[in-house]
Amino acid sequence: MISFGPVPSRRLGKSLGINNIIAPKTCSYACVYCQAGRTHIKSIKRDSFFEPEKIYRSVNEHISLLPSDNYPDYLTLVSNGEPTLDINLGRTIELLRRTGIPVAVITNASLLFSDTVREDLYRADWISLKVDAADDDLWKKINRPDRNLDFDRHMKSIFLFSAEYKGVLCTESMIIDGLNDFPDHFEKLAGIVKSINPEKAYLSVPTRPPSEKWIKPPDAEKLNAAWQIFSKRKIKTELLTGFEGTDTGSGGNIYEDILNITAVHPLREDSMLKLLEKNNADFGIVESLINQKLIRPVVYMDKRFFIREYHFSRNKSGDSNT
């Protein structure tokens, strides 16, 4: 299945996730904190992954299996990589809107310099843009962008998109201990976000196993300082620091549910147990997937998670992913 969930979302309520990028992870970034693991193919070239009609049929089938009390609030394109790399994204959004459910896209915003990418995203109801760094140096340290990307052009394209987009626009900034959690940077970052003028700015911290093991969340005092600086600029700001909850929906196939969810983000053990319970399944299924090397357990911040296991090493651009 291409879709998974619905999963509880701190931003979107019940979100039916849609992974429109085929494994291995294909992205224009290789963020140090990425919960989807390391980037195997780093690229800014758009490509065809799934036919839009296939995504539409898969999502409709998934929705038909859901009980009425677990109907999604949003259909969210949140992929194993950067969703705007999908050259068919605009058509996919058009088809998904036929369901009558709002369509959200969570993007790193790196391809907004492209007229066609912006046109595709204008069709979505809700957009989240990643804004982690206020200068080129931190951008390269945190997001590790494709070598063909330029920070100044990146910022200009974000401002252009924000001025033209008519839906609900939000920003999200990941705050990381020792990297971008100091007052001078918060001031510059708040200035950029203020210029974007989002309906809401989210400040998040790492809560799942990141691609680099040394990544840690900032102290509470520093996160509060960031919130205060953003709020003084009259930016509607919300902290994303807690666990979303364990109420993960099922598509009717427990094996596919586990593989599809873990392809996009690590699944915490309590959420895994709840998902098994909903499907009247036992933990032997998880052990089987581990033995097949399809998932693996990891511990982060004293919590046990299960993440998707991949065995790829390709990189189209030749960029290092570490």
Please give the CATH class.
Alpha Beta
Instruction: Provide the domain count.
Output: 1
What structural category arises from helix and sheet content? Answer: alpha/beta
CATH superfamily: Aldolase class I
Radius of gyration: 19 Å
- The portion of residues assigned to helices is 25-40%
Strand order of the largest sheet: 1-2-5-6-7-8-9-10
What summary fits the major beta sheet?
8 strands, mixed
* CATH domain topology: TIM Barrel
CATH architecture descriptor text: Alpha-Beta Barrel
Order of helices and strands: EEEEHEHEHEHHEHEHEHEHHEE
Strand content: 15-25%
N-to-C span? 30 Å
Q: Which geometry do the CA atoms define?
A: globular
How many distinct beta strands? Answer: 13
**Count of helical stretches:** 10
Mean pLDDT: 87
Poorly predicted residue ranges: 312-322
What would you note in describing this structure?
It is a single chain. This protein has 322 residues and is an alpha/beta fold. It has a single domain, classed as TIM Barrel (Alpha-Beta Barrel), CATH 3.20.20.70. Helices cover 33% and strands 19% of the residues. It has 10 helices and 13 strands. It has an 8-stranded mixed beta sheet with strand order 1-2-5-6-7-8-9-10. Strands 11-13-12 form a 3-stranded antiparallel beta sheet. Helix 2 packs parallel to helix 3 (115-121). The longest helix has 14 residues, at 151-164.
